[in-house]
């Protein structure tokens, strides 16, 4: 990073500084290893759940999961070989503007279109109420609810607004992602403070009342490369997902200095985290939740936005960032 520092007073002196570099473990899976690992796990008992003629919904979210297009294409190829009739459902709650066209565009950004995947994308926002959990109606995508089998493709990762044994992953994709705009709005009304209990409970309910077959879950390393890939059978979800979250948390990048007077962040964006920058790393979140194993930072300055954010800075709570506008990069 190269940046000039303009001091408000020539009499102000900065403390002595030293350049240090953190080298993160990059022991991730290559694209070929992703395909080989997935095909091996899709064999045997998993593949036997797919029967000829089945309409199978492959649920794909809005996060920039590494090798997402490869994962989806490999799953679709297996389903077609089994004689099934697969299709894709955007499973992203209210993302993409909460519209069919917007969610289709989000998938296209990750290389997932009807042309590249060779299947239809059922992008309707229509939902059906499949029951109630803790007084909240549970809404679910109509194409998913009426399919013969559902296969979520997701990334297990610590959430940016709540902590629990289950955070971002399979259960949240079922509860929020496949709840579409209506379901997401309904559950978000409960507040993030309830999500640690509510998301697993809604997930458990949907495991019993929807045709989930299995999930394809990834865990990424500190450099956003796939480090672990696992096919999770529906009945094993509530046992396996917490284990994968522990692995994901252990692989998070860590800032090794504590405390910090000023942290300068080069780029933020929703493709990095829902809040622009990951509070699991910085410890700073809009909700005020104290994240474990994070440094104490007095001020955070942001220099710019990622290209994929397309100039959209709203995810970052600016009072939290402590910077009214991005700092110049040169």
Strand content: 15-25%
State the strand order across the main sheet: 2-1-5-6-7
Count, helices: 11
Query: Any idea what the CATH architecture of the largest domain is?
Result: 3-Layer(aba) Sandwich
Q: What's the main sheet like?
A: 5 strands, mixed
* CATH topology category name of the largest domain: Rossmann fold
CATH superfamily of the largest domain: LarA, N-terminal domain
Which class do the helix and strand fractions yield? Answer: alpha/beta
Low-confidence runs: 318-324
Total tally of structural domains: 2
Total DSSP E strands: 9
Instruction: Calculate the mean pLDDT score and round it.
Output: 90
How far from one another are the termini?
9 Å
Helix content: 25-40%
Overall geometry: globular
Our Rg estimate from Cα atoms comes to 21 Å
The CATH class of the largest domain: Alpha Beta
Give me the strand/helix succession.
Answer: HEHEHHEEHEHHHEEHEHEH
